[in-house]
């Protein structure tokens, strides 16, 4: 099986396809005038993100989302008026899905910065589903340490309860926090969300069905994005990130991968490939890629991380 760009006829009718330049041209409808400094500021949120990526991909998307937020608020007014209640806009929730190492969190950080520049929705929060992984003690007791990222490794009830509380407009909603350094949930720490204008909810599992549970994460989404790329490219990004972490985070004694800190580069690459092939690639094929066609927007990246094609669902 591969993750090639080929689409079946059903998908072709569901989505409009845009080349990079066609999508970039939609920036023309962006009334927000960003100075060169503003754009540089957005890029600073994630140094890997190039200026052209911000201008060509992120600005049209932030405009589309700005219009969508306004429309969703309009519908909220209709419902509150019908119910005779004071009008309160619930947070607009955007799900971001895709493989391990495809660049979801990088993309989400830049999207957050871009959306928060709009005066009508300055308060944008970002939560990753990593925090809803079961802690290591639970994963170990269930024999799931080699299944991290698979559906059974998450506390889905807690994840759905979190989204439900945010959408219901609760004043403060807490999410657990995961550390990539210790490879575990951080005890006694929480990330608190306080009625943001927009919540970006990022993780490989956000578009997945939840076995047996009545609600899915995507039931709470107003919009969703799938970050897509060739399997081989993602595997290489995973290896590159592993090598970077080896030179940085793994050097710290509290790192779960501290014992890999002095592996020669060839062996470190082989170790990264082994973890990729054993865990993250099967998870991509079995559980993540099958959710791609649920997304409203699919961004297809090339080997250089630049988005080459955008597919937008017809609604
Ligand atoms: N637009 C980009 N340009 C260049 N490099 C990028 C870009 N986006 C991500 N990367 C790099 O690709 C790697 C994976 O990115 P990131 O950590 O954002 O992925 P992720 O999908 O959030 O992964 P995970 O699911 O493991 O958290 C990182 O090394 C990151 O620096
Ligand atoms: C925490 C997840 C599942 C998602 O971010 C991922 O980073 C992970 O830890 N995968 C398990 C195999 C690995 O260490 O790459």
From TrEMBL:
Catalytic activity entry: (R)-pantothenate + ATP = (R)-4'-phosphopantothenate + ADP + H(+)
Pathway(s) of this molecule: Cofactor biosynthesis; coenzyme A biosynthesis; CoA from (R)-pantothenate: step 1/5
CDD domains: PanK
EC number, UniProt record: 2.7.1.33
Phosphoribulokinase/uridine kinase domain residues: 93-232
Domain of life: Bacteria
Subcellular location: Cytoplasm
Family annotation (InterPro entries): P-loop_NTPase, PanK, PRK/URK
Keywords: ATP-binding, Coenzyme A biosynthesis, Cytoplasm, Kinase, Nucleotide-binding, Transferase
Top class in the EC scheme: transferase
GO MF terms held by the record: pantothenate kinase activity
Keyword Cytoplasm: yes
Pfam families: PRK
Residues where ATP binds: 98-105
UniProt keyword Disulfide bond present: no
Family, as annotated: Belongs to the prokaryotic pantothenate kinase family.
Family matches, as HAMAP family: Pantothen_kinase_1
PANTHER family with a match to the protein in the record: URIDINE KINASE
Protein name: Pantothenate kinase
Gene field: coaA
């Amino acid at each position: 099986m591969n993750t090639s760009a080929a689409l079946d006829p059903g998908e072709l009718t569901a989505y409009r396809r845009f080349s990079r330049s066609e999508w970039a041209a939609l920036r023309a409808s962006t009334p927000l005038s960003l100075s060169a400094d503003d754009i540089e500021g957005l890029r600073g949120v994630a140094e890997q993100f190039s200026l052209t990526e911000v201008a060509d991909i992120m600005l049209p998307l932030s405009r589309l989302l700005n219009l969508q937020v306004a429309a969703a608020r309009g519908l909220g007014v209709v419902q509150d008026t019908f119910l005779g209640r004071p009008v309160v806009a619930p947070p607009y929730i955007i799900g971001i899905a895709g493989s391990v190492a495809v660049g979801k969190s990088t993309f989400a950080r830049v999207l957050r910065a871009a959306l928060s520049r709009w005066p009508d929705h300055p308060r944008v929060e970002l939560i990753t589903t990593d925090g809803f992984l079961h802690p290591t003690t639970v994963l170990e007791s269930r024999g799931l340490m080699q299944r991290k990222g698979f559906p059974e490794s998450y506390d889905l009830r807690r994840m759905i309860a979190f989204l439900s509380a945010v959408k219901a407009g609760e004043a403060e909603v807490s999410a657990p926090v995961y550390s990539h350094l210790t490879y575990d949930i951080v005890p006694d720490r929480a990330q608190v969300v306080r009625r943001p204008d927009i919540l970006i909810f990022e993780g490989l599992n956000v578009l997945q069905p939840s076995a047996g549970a009545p609600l899915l994460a995507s039931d709470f989404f107003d919009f969703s994005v799938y970050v897509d790329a060739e399997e081989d490219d993602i595997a290489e990004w995973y290896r590159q990130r592993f090598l970077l972490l080896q030179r940085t985070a793994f050097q710290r004694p509290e790192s779960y991968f501290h014992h890999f800190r002095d592996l020669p580069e060839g062996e470190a690459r082989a170790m990264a490939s082994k973890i990729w092939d054993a865990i993250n690639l099967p998870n991509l094929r079995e559980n993540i890629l099958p959710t791609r066609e649920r997304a409203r927007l699919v961004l297809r990246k090339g080997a250089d991380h630049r988005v080459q094609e955008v597919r937008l669902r017809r609604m």
